[in-house]
Amino acid sequence: MGIVRADCQRQDEQDPLRALRDQFQLPEGVLYLDGNSLGALPKATAKRVASAVNDEWGHGLIRSWNTAGWITLPSRVGDKIARLIGADPGEVVVADSTSVNLYKVLSAALAMAAVAAPRKKVILSERHNFPTDLYIAQSLAREHGCELVLCDTPGEVDARLDEGSVAVLMLTHVNYRTGRMHDLRRLTGLAHERGALALWDLAHSAGAVPLALKADEADFAVGCGYKYLNGGPGAPAFAWVHPRHADRFEQPLSGWMGHAEPFAFTPDYRPAPGIARYLCGTPAVLAMTALECGVDTLLAAPGIEALRKKSLALTDLFMELVEARCGGQGLVLATPLERALRGSQVSYMRAEGGYALMQALIARNVIGDFRAPDLLRFGFTPLYTRFVDVWDAVEALREVLETGVWREPRFQARATVT
Amino acid sequence: MGIVRADCQRQDEQDPLRALRDQFQLPEGVLYLDGNSLGALPKATAKRVASAVNDEWGHGLIRSWNTAGWITLPSRVGDKIARLIGADPGEVVVADSTSVNLYKVLSAALAMAAVAAPRKKVILSERHNFPTDLYIAQSLAREHGCELVLCDTPGEVDARLDEGSVAVLMLTHVNYRTGRMHDLRRLTGLAHERGALALWDLAHSAGAVPLALKADEADFAVGCGYKYLNGGPGAPAFAWVHPRHADRFEQPLSGWMGHAEPFAFTPDYRPAPGIARYLCGTPAVLAMTALECGVDTLLAAPGIEALRKKSLALTDLFMELVEARCGGQGLVLATPLERALRGSQVSYMRAEGGYALMQALIARNVIGDFRAPDLLRFGFTPLYTRFVDVWDAVEALREVLETGVWREPRFQARATVT
Question: pTM of the entire structure?
Answer without folding.
Answer: 0.98
